Amino acid sequence: MRGEYSDLYSDVPADIPWATEALGGADPDAVNLWIGNSRSVTALHKDNYENIYCQVRGEKCFVLLPPVETPCVNITYLEQATYARSGEDALTLVPEVASDKIPWPIWDPDIPDTNATALSHLSIPLRVDLAPGDLLYLPALW
What we know:
Blueprint: H1 6-9, H2 17-22, E1 51-54, E2 60-64, E3 75-78, E4 81-85, E5 91-95, E6 102-105, E7 126-130, E8 135-138
Antiparallel strand pairs: 1-8, 2-7, 3-6, 4-5
């Protein structure tokens, strides 16, 4: 991240004390930067690791489900694939050979009657709105 986003690096503290303490002084496994605009939407998913989301500019709305609500989410299984360049401005989806299928949610808590399971109506999504300067800690699987 230091090389790719060097203009932003001076705005990011070298250390978040409580996060460093939580990690036992170790470096995090990954550091990601997500950039979007007002039309950006992230599909319902769960991460197998903890996240600290820092809102720098604009606003972001999170719709969160605790792991106990997993049975409320309808899941399908998709073939794994990657995008490959197939020209100067074109991408082609290339299926991965002999790969396991990955679980993918097809239920959206914002459209609860579409692709619902028998338990979807029991879900109580937690909605969190972030503004510039806000931090959100997301435990694993949330």
